[in-house]
Amino acid sequence: MATELEELVGFLSSPSPPVKKAAVEIVRDLTGSEDGLLSLSKYASTMLPSLSQLLKDKKEVSEPAAEALINLSLNSNLAAKMVEMGMIKTAMDVLYKPDSSITRLLVMLLVNLTQLDSGIVSLLQIEDEKMQGLFVMKLVRSFCRSSDETRDDPFDHVGSILVNISKKEAGRKMLLDSKRGLLKQILRQFDSTSPLRKKGVFGTLRNCCFEAENQLQNLLLISEFLWPALLLPVADI
C-alpha cells in the first residue's frame, strides 16, 4: 500500500492542474526542512523527473517546482542524480524559452548543480563536440547584456556559475579561449554596482589566473580589461 508521501509524489504527475499545483506546493514546503528533504529523497527516482517536467508548466506550478529543486539540490547525492538525468539541459532549455518566468530560480539551480564536477562537465558540454561551450556562451551573453537593464537582475547569479566552472581546468580553458572571447566579456563587468556580480567577476578572474603559465598569450590579449579588473580591488574603489 502506498504511503502518503508516495501518493503525494504521484500527484505531481496528475492531469488535474489544481491537484498538481497543490502537490508541488506541498513538496516545495517539505523541502524547506531537513526532515522533509530526507523523507522525500527516498522517492527521488520518481519525484525528480516529475519536478523537472513541471519546470515547463505555467508559473504557478513551475515556480514552486523550481524552488523545490533548488532546495533538493543542496543535497549532493540528489544534485548528482539531477545532473545524471539531464537537469542542466532541461534548466537551460526552459531558461531560454521566450516566455520563461522563472529565470532567477533556474540560474540559482544551475549554481547549485555546478558545485559538482559532473555538473560542470554537463554545463560545459564536454562530451558533445558540436555543442561544446554553447550553454556557457549563452550564460555569459546574458550576464553581460542584462547588467544595466534592472537593479534586480535575474542573471546576477551567473557570476557564481562562472566561478564554479573556472575552478576546473576545462572551464578555465574555455573561458580563456581567445576565439570565444568569454573572459574579455566577463571582465567588462568589473565596475558593476552589483556586489554579487563583482564577486563573480573577480572570483572567475582569480581562478583563471591559475592558467597564467599556460595561457599567458591569451591573458595578454585582454590586458586592457585585465589590468583595471586586477587593480580596482587594490585601489579599494
Automatic annotation (TrEMBL):
Pfam families referenced in this protein's UniProt entry, alphabetically: DUF383
Matches recorded under InterPro entries: ARM-like (IPR011989), ARM-type_fold (IPR016024), Hgh1 (IPR039717), Protein_HGH1_N (IPR007205)
Highest taxon, organism lineage: Eukaryota
Upper taxonomic lineage: Eukaryota, Viridiplantae, Streptophyta, Embryophyta, Tracheophyta
Residue ranges constituting the Protein HGH1 N-terminal domain according to the UniProt record: 96-236
SUPFAM superfamilies: ARM repeat
Name of the protein in question: Protein HGH1 N-terminal domain-containing protein
